[in-house]
DNA sequence: CAATCGTATAAGTATTCGCTTATATATTCG
DNA sequence: CGAATATATAAGCGAATACTTATACGATTG
């Protein structure tokens, strides 16, 4: 799998708002079982399960089985393709947009 | 339009490899007419035109008319929603993944 | 073992997407 | 004005997407 394909996967996976909401909840809660993610979600359990699979396939989350429960956590390396891509073009934006580092600081 | 919706637009727009390739060419070439982008593209002129519209609608490129030609250039602010989103969750990743700034430096 | 709980998969469907060909809308040139 | 150039829009189509309900699988419990 090329870097471009990985980036495409990450972008496609994060582009869906429902799936991104699941991802953000995992970020905030640290480690959550799928049940916990279904609670408070607008969509059904299978839909959440499908989103979790997509997130895992994209390398954005990892799972840990504990009895009947499967706990999901963020796999920060999954964002690597996105970070790399932004960094790769940073020099082109720097000329007219300061630079990404500065932006990251300002956005906090 | 909420911030989440803008982010969704940016992610969706960049998620298509053909469209992202158009965007990357605009980045590299600085300012290009649509004709130049059609040359060397795998897809037809209308397809390129549709991608350019999507990029403009997402705020990722700006255009400047000059006679019959329309020159496209990157609108760096268009990446704002993406940068902001990454920055917003930076603190959550920092614990286990150093921080985005460091990553950006390393990725050069 | 049987019932139950947590999660995944299967199958079907409506919507969205990216592409094509054909046509329309500027803008310039002779 | 009429022809040519640069770009956009229209219409249609096949593939992908995100959801649903129904069912299967895996692990625990009584």
List strands and helices in order, with pairings:
The structure is a homodimer of 108-residue chains.
Chain A: H1 3-15, H2 17-29, E1 31-33, H3 34-38, H4 45-57, E2 61-66, E3 69-74, H5 80-88, H6 90-97, H7 100-106
Antiparallel strand pairs in A: 1-3, 2-3
The structure holds a DNA duplex (30 and 30 nucleotides).
- Main sheet attributes: strand count, strand direction, barrel closure of chain A: 3 strands, antiparallel
Assess the beta-strand content of chain A as a share of residues: 5-15%
Radius of gyration of chain A: 16 Å
Strands of the largest sheet of chain A, in order across it? 1-3-2
Number of strands of chain A: 3
Query: What is the largest interface, and how many residues per chain?
Result: A-B, 38 and 40 residues
Labels describing this entry:
homodimer, 108 residues, alpha+beta, Arc Repressor Mutant, subunit A, 3-stranded antiparallel β-sheet, 7 helices, 14% strand, disordered C terminus, DNA-binding, transcription (chains A, B), ArsR family transcriptional regulator (chains A, B), DNA binding (chains A, B), WH_DNA-bd_sf (chains A, B)
Give an overview of the whole structure.
The structure is a homodimer of 108-residue chains. In chain A, strands 1-3-2 form a three-stranded antiparallel sheet. The model of chain A is unreliable at 95-108 (pLDDT under 50). Chain A is elongated, with a radius of gyration of 16 Å. Chain A starts with a helix and ends with a helix. Chain A is α+β, with helices and mostly antiparallel strands and 108 residues long. Chain A is built from seven helices and three strands, in the order ααβααββααα. Chain A has a domain at 3-77: Winged helix-like DNA-binding domain superfamily/Winged helix DNA-binding domain (Arc Repressor Mutant, subunit A). Chain A binds a DNA duplex (30 and 30 nucleotides) through helix 3 and helix 4.
């Amino acid at each position: 799998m090329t870097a471009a394909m990985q980036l495409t996967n990450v972008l496609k996976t994060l582009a869906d708002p429902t799936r991104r909401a699941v991802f953000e909840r995992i970020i905030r809660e640290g480690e959550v079982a799928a049940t916990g993610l279904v609670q408070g979600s607008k969509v059904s359990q299978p839909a959440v399960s499908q989103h979790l699979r997509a997130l895992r396939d994209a390398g954005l989350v990892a799972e840990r089985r504990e009895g009947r429960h499967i706990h999901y956590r963020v796999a920060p390396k999954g964002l690597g393709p996105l970070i790399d891509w932004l960094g790769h073009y940073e020099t082109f934006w720097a000329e007219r947009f300061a630079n990404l580092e500065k932006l990251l600081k300002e956005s906090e």
